[in-house]
């Protein structure tokens, strides 16, 4: 048994290391972080009071702690407490050893309360209902103790059911088999599932079922267990997480198997509760007696609290002690009976330990042990259950995330290697059957995972193969709901990640904004929030996303990748966060994490990321390439208009300034990149500039040719090319539009229809200004390294400058007009009166216009709108060019919802306020106003000579 010894001693050592890392983390928190901060981190709950106290299974005292309801705190602060967590209860003096009252196990957590079971057999705990208590999550050593014990038992294993199994699992004996014909319960199993079931049944010691995402692993495991029951085998079925165990309980119960679920009943799903040990005991013959004893204990507690004198209290304590002993004996008898009757006993891996209910069973009671989600468990935790059986069936997917391990060294020295993986390394495919038909993802989503992770062996079942969101009832057909793959590329958009030193917590606010817009597009197309998952690899980003989205969409699930394993959603929006010049991807470099994130999606996955950054990682690059090739790609610029107020429609300079300033600050702020990287960047920049000039030349040629109304770029243009087109179009004040889907998507530019000669003139002036400003900025960039700027402040500052310039221009132009009278200016207010006489229909409007202030409607803005005003279609007022953007003067929401309507109608976001919103009440007026504008324009050109007479 050399192999066993070696394994046990090494694993014990690694577990110790891991345990120390965990304790160290807790200690660091306790020493360096204030209680308030701990509460913010979700590991501490402050100032709770006792709601009630009762006696649970095994005579444990269960205390329900609540926030200070009388002070209006109706729910607990958001926290990470969960059932099974070990917690310390402290008086309000602090969270130190001195003030600790006791330690317990969380049995239930709700919004409004947390239940903690205290093992107080030694000394009766009593709580003061008036006092406040703090609760702190402690490093959980129960799990460690159980794993250590299982390892020691493994090492010293001499006789017992698992002898042969141990030999096989450590390579001392080859696995053997014995095949037999099977009649399947589930007639719908696919070939790979049938093969897996047959294989599992025929193996004498070991079978591994590899179930990639959505391949019906649970369906297969359920069939295996039903077959085992048919053969008269007793099965112990475990999984590392409560969720996975409950899932199996539910499915087995549906198939009428006699199931028994071990674990704290209070925390189980309602549908599961009736299968819990507590519930079954409650319906057993012993139930009444047990209930009576419990009541007596509770009564004794109440009595004890009322007693002031020490002598009397001691009596009560003795009484309680005796009652507890009796309770335990009776419970043990009842439990044994119930356990023996069950066909399948289910628990978490650690719940299968010897000091729980299973101690009531003889060692050889179980025949088979089934471990689901085996790749997510520490091997040591598997051994807690494995020592009880002759044969084991391990199901899982080792291409998804392994168990979380805190100690880097322990992980790298092998603690993160799952039993499943270790066996596959040892025996190869001979012990494995893989499920290959998947019932979740559209094949476009699946194909990438299949190719990169599962040797291309997956096929999509015909029922899901081509399903997309628009096939769901009530979901409209728009671009977002028609494509399974959508890549929103932020490359070059300046949406850099936040500068946080902590590798585990990265955020990206720009991506949050884009995610928000995409979610809105999906919801407006009719998708339900509960069918969408927002996934981010970083906790900070998860928090940012929740802050932004949770209030409006309480049913939207926003979680880290790790929190979503084992789940699925119709649509998944994935924010990859990382965007930096160094091309650092950090945490994202774990391929399995990305695999999990992507494979949660059934019909649609949208990935928001900076492709320039994430492409530095081979696996992420394969995802980007796949999405580019088979999906739809948009640049974040198609969204940015809606996010930040800098709508560039007429502020041509801003586009350029923001994109170049954004990326340059990002680049410089990151410190000195190694020279090679720098060279590479310069090369890229140069290539970009060349490309951009090419595109610009093309557009300029188009502009000169007045016969052409539209310039269409080929669909071979990459998203980056399209971005450049976008920038050039914005620079020149042109309309641009993306059409088509996927590979056929292409961009075109055209002249804005309402463009007047006057505006062209202005643009000419501005273009030269823009060039100068750009030159200036470029030289500044080369000279100095700027601190990181956020887009908003950059924008606001620019707005200010812009306004000053505009006002200055306007003043000069007015001077110019009155001086020379040769201006090509479009008609100003002075012409309105003349115009009015020509067309009765417009009388009313014209009067209104005349009466209306000739200055910008924006509060405190004095800029004239007579010559360069813009009408806002949402509020129907005139604004100067600095304030005409809806977001700036307060019509942002209306504009957004209007833009969204257009997105859901046409699937594309446009610059500026776009077409008039027909649903608006003053729409008729706006329509007339526009008619008036063009009329005035016509009249102005007719009256040009007249002007000179005035
Ligand atoms: N043979 C089959 N025929 C039709 N549908 C199936 C089949 N097997 C599984 N499914 C469907 O696939 C989905 C996932 O199956 P199941 O719940 O067994 O897998 P899981 O274990 O939860 O998921 P995973 O495979 O990701 O672990 C379910 O909706 C199930 O109905
Ligand atoms: Zn407005
Ligand atoms: Zn203004």
UniProtKB/TrEMBL annotation:
Q: What class of enzyme is it?
A: hydrolase
Q: Where's it mainly located?
A: other
Q: Where in the cell is it found?
A: Cell projection, Axon; Cytoplasm; Nucleus
Mind telling me which Gene3D superfamilies this protein's record contains?
Answer: 2.40.30.270, AN1-like Zinc finger, P-loop containing nucleotide triphosphate hydrolases, R3H-like domain
Q: Where is the composition biased (Basic and acidic residues)?
A: 736-746, 764-776, 792-811, 914-950
Q: What are the alphabetically sorted keywords of the record?
A: Acetylation, Activator, ATP-binding, Cell projection, Cytoplasm, DNA-binding, Helicase, Hydrolase, Metal-binding, Nucleotide-binding, Nucleus, Ribonucleoprotein, RNA-binding, Transcription, Transcription regulation, tRNA-binding, Zinc, Zinc-finger
Picking any one GO molecular function of the record gives: DNA binding
Which protein family is named in the record?
Answer: Belongs to the DNA2/NAM7 helicase family.
How does the annotation summarize its subunit structure?
Answer: Homooligomer. Interacts with RUVBL1. Interacts with RUVBL2. Interacts with GTF3C1. Interacts with ABT1. Interacts with ribosomes.
Name the UniProt record assigns to this protein: DNA-binding protein SMUBP-2
